[in-house]
Amino acid sequence: MAKKQDSASVDTTIDAKVPAGPLAEKWSNYKAHQKLVNPANKRRLDVIVVGTGLAGASAAASLAELGFNVLNFCIQDSPRRAHSIAAQGGINAAKNYKNDGDSVYRLFYDTIKGGDYRAREANVYRLAEVSNNIIDQCVAQGVPFAREYGGLLDNRSFGGAQVSRTFYAKGQTGQQLLLGAYSALSRQVGKGAVKLYSRYEMLDVVIIEGRARGIIARNLTTGKIERFFAHAVVVGTGGYGNAFFLSTNAMTSNGSAAVQMYKKGAYFANPAYAQIHPTCIPVHGDFQSKLTLMSESLRNDGRIWVPKRKEDAEAIRAGKLKATDLKEEDRDYYLERRYPAFGNLVPRDVASRAAKERCDAGFGVGNTGLAVYLDFSDSINRLGEDVIRARYGNLFQMYEKIVDENPYKTPMMIYPAIHYVMGGIWVDYELQTSVKGLFCIGEANFSDHGANRLGASALMQGLADGYFVLPYTIQNYLADQIQVPRLSVDLPEFAEAEKAVNEKIEKILKIQGNKSVDTIHRELGLVMWDFVGMARNKAGLEEALTKIKNIRKEFWTNVFVPGVNADTNIELEKALRLADFIEIGELMARDALMREESCGGHFREEYQTPDGEALRNDEEFSFASCWKFNGEGEDPILLKEPLEYEFIKRQQRNYKA
Amino acid sequence: MEKTINITLKIWRQAGPKAKGEFVTYKLDNVSTDSSFLEMLDVLNEKLISERKEPIVFDHDCREGICGMCSLFINGHPHGLDAGTTTCQLHMRRFKDGETITIEPWRSKAFPVLKDLRVDRNAFDKIIQAGGYVSVNTGGVPDGNAIPISKIAADEAMDAASCIGCGACAATCKNGSAMLFVAAKVSQLALLPQGRVEAAARAKAMVAKMDELGFGNCTNTGACEAECPKNVSISHIARLNREFLSAKFKD
């Protein structure tokens, strides 16, 4: 149990266990000196991997290849459906195949800068280092990356970089990379080295003598609550963007595993860092269940604009004028105007805020005025419709199905939406949480993106963690565990954890109130979007905290969940996730309120430069905020991991020149 | 401007794998034509919940047409009548005011119903586990540009690889065959030098597993291609047959 402490009296800083030595040698040195597990001992060690996305599947496959006995849990009916599959645009690597000046250092530098100097240097450098291995690995698996006529791999550009380093497979890169990892995983399942549990959801982590030793999971088909032991537990369950109800995440994407880890002692780091993606299809109705992303790669060939004159914007909103009626000189290509050096390829946070600024100022288009244009007419004139179709055909088709407009003829309408969270469970250099034997990988951890993630870097990080980092670092932990026998799941710690889960479920089922889970979730989503979204301020965040408290009360007294536990029960699943989204929502607001500066995706209106850019405060806030659970109903304790920049100099981010 | 329609739904409901199922009729008014098919079902479920009834169970996740989770027979067609469209990408503007829409789960012996409209598609995972991969471990692989691959082969492999594993092909086939699904993977990997090495063994292993799991034989009716939400071509089945026969000849 976490001890209750008075937060005012604690001033603890956290050690990330970053290896000593020059930046470029840290990872090599670590690998050269870490402890390993010999082959005969590996098969006596069990590892649970929760999640089968890029991070989870690649970790489960790689660990099984090494000889560990792996149990892999999947919330969908098949590992191939994890939400990594929906990533469209591409994956970064420092191959420099284009001879355009790329290098490991430049990818590292761009990632640190893109993250607004709020990421850990050593982790990011390692990420850039292993990025090239990922491309090689995926090619060897048969991932059909786009190629040039000469037979070599093709690249495209993404935001926040001045080189072309993004590898892609049409607009379905995430799908192809995930299917590559899934095939590697399937091979191990076929061999019996991985036991796969699909349609299972983790509901708690079991701690024995201070170490993670297993999980409690619910079989989503039968409702049975089951216990699983392992020598170590790895969680790769993705991000918590669905706290906003409307996001580009899949419907089952949730933050519950993160909350369970947090309540068992793992720190929750930088919860406020959420990424609002600039190019999503705008909201169009109350019935809407989710938002759809249009890949950032579209900004390679699309130009973003709004009308220059307010009258024109008003006429468009009223349906009296069409986008194509406006002459070139009547259009404001505001990103090209404000950021001449990067133009339409500024990082996501910058592009999102710029869209909000124009719409708030009355220049937005669409029925609601909450949309801007993404226009391909120049590119189509220059390259021809066929080239644009070959590059983005599936995206254009998706847009047309949803909006019922042909984007080859009329500009797309886009607006920012919640897409990704940089925050997550705190991990050290070894990807281990503050609980021994509990590891966290992929989007679920907080590690590499700082306050803002660059496009095409999520796939890179997920696969880096799963293929090339965790399979090493976890051995440094497991080497000490070879004497530990397989423990019985009849131990009291397992029984207690299962009892707590059952009690929570019974409590929810007994409420029998008057509001559906989705009704309450929508209420939470609105609060999050209005007060904890693209622009935040002190008063709004304080109001959000009050509102979220009320929503929590409403949930625990007035939710209605039909059916029973011992059956497929989709409302119960959603209710359990919503209970945790409420906790996350509160943590996000709390973290955003604490962080009195603007950085990356976290924009506090009080802290901006005269021309409206994010204004960091490196003196006071150059740390990762790590929230430690302090008991139900108690305020969490803030711990800090200081971020020291040993190898690069911090600057005000500049994408203008 | 938002338009709405009133519809009647005939939906298959089944309490569990062994329970007897039946069609239940629901009326739903004021459905926005801008909503997706699944959002329409969300609205129906919210209505059922407000009547304190159990909602209809159906599979869905990404709602962007890529995860392959959604799986409904709509008016006799998997993923509905629109070509090249998953259920989640189907919109209510494709239906008429006053229309009766019939919704069933996938119909295939190899995909048993779990509850209502949800089926068990583990058989597809088992086929992939039998050989739908290149046998490489993590690490120790050559540089990504070490082996040039013609753009034509890479593009064709990508077309095959766009299969989302939803099961519409097997569900619509009168023989219940999974040939298009198997062919898409065999073809993708056979087209690339990395997968070429194991092409024969892969084709044999995957076909054997498909047969073992109770999928039927292919008689080239072409229904799978017509209904595939990702327009995977049956030319991949021809390639699978070629791989399979040449492997068998060598035995």
Question: What multimeric state do the chains show?
Answer: heterodimer
Count of structural domains of chain B:
2
Write the element-wise H/E pattern of chain B from the N-terminal end onward: EEHEEEEEHHHHHHHH
How large, in whole angstroms, is the Cα Rg of chain A?
24 Å
What is the CATH C-level name of the domain at 278-417 in chain A? Alpha Beta
The CATH topology of the domain at 278-417 in chain A comes to Flavocytochrome C3, Chain A, domain 1
What distance separates the N and C termini of chain B?
65 Å
For the sheet with most strands of chain A, the description reads: 5 strands, parallel
Name the CATH superfamily assignment of the domain at 278-417 in chain A: Succinate dehydrogenase/fumarate reductase flavoprotein, catalytic domain
The CATH topology annotation of the largest domain in chain B reads as Fumarate Reductase Iron-sulfur Protein, Chain B, domain 2
Individual helix count of chain B: 9
Question: How much of the polypeptide of chain B forms β-strand, as a percent range?
Answer: 5-15%
Q: Which homologous superfamily in CATH is the superfamily of the largest domain in chain B?
A: Alpha-helical ferredoxin
Mean pLDDT figure of chain A: 95
Computed CA radius of gyration of chain B, to the nearest angstrom: 20 Å
- Count helical runs of chain A: 18
Describe the structure.
Chain A has 657 residues and is an alpha+beta fold. Among the domains of chain A are: 278-417, Succinate dehydrogenase/fumarate reductase flavoprotein, catalytic domain (Flavocytochrome C3, Chain A, domain 1); 492-626, Methane Monooxygenase Hydroxylase, Chain G, domain 1, CATH 1.20.58.100. Chain A has helices at 26-33, 39-42, 54-66, 104-114, 121-141, 173-191, 256-263, 310-317, 334-338, 348-360, 377-383, 385-403, 458-478, 492-511, 517-531, 538-558, 570-594, 618-621; strands spanning 46-50, 69-74, 91-92, 166-167, 194-198, 200-208, 211-219, 225-229, 232-235, 268-269, 274-280, 303-307, 331-332, 372-375, 412-421, 424-425, 438-440, 623-628, 637-642. In chain A, the strands form five sheets. Chain A has a five-stranded parallel sheet with strand order 5-2-1-9-17, with helices on both faces. In chain A, strand 7 and strand 8 (225-229) form a beta hairpin. In chain A, helix 11 (377-383) packs antiparallel against helix 12 (385-403), helix 15 runs antiparallel to helix 16 (538-558) and helix 15 (517-531) runs parallel beside helix 17 (570-594). The longest helix of chain A has 25 residues, at 570-594. Chain A is globular. With 251 residues, chain B is α+β, with helices and mostly antiparallel strands. Chain B has two domains: 4-115, Ubiquitin-like (UB roll) (Roll), CATH 3.10.20.30; 122-250, Fumarate Reductase Iron-sulfur Protein, Chain B, domain 2, CATH 1.10.1060.10. Helix content of chain B is 36%, strand content 15%. Chain B contains nine helices and seven strands; from the N terminus they run E-E-H-E-E-E-E-E-H-H-H-H-H-H-H-H. In chain B, the strands form two sheets. In chain B, strands 2-1-5-3-4 form a five-stranded mixed sheet. Chain B has a two-stranded antiparallel ribbon with strand order 6-7. The longest helix of chain B has 16 residues, at 235-250. The radius of gyration of chain B is 20 Å and the shape is elongated. Chains A and B meet through helix 3, helix 5, helix 6, helix 12 and helix 13 of A and helix 1, helix 2 and helix 3 of B.
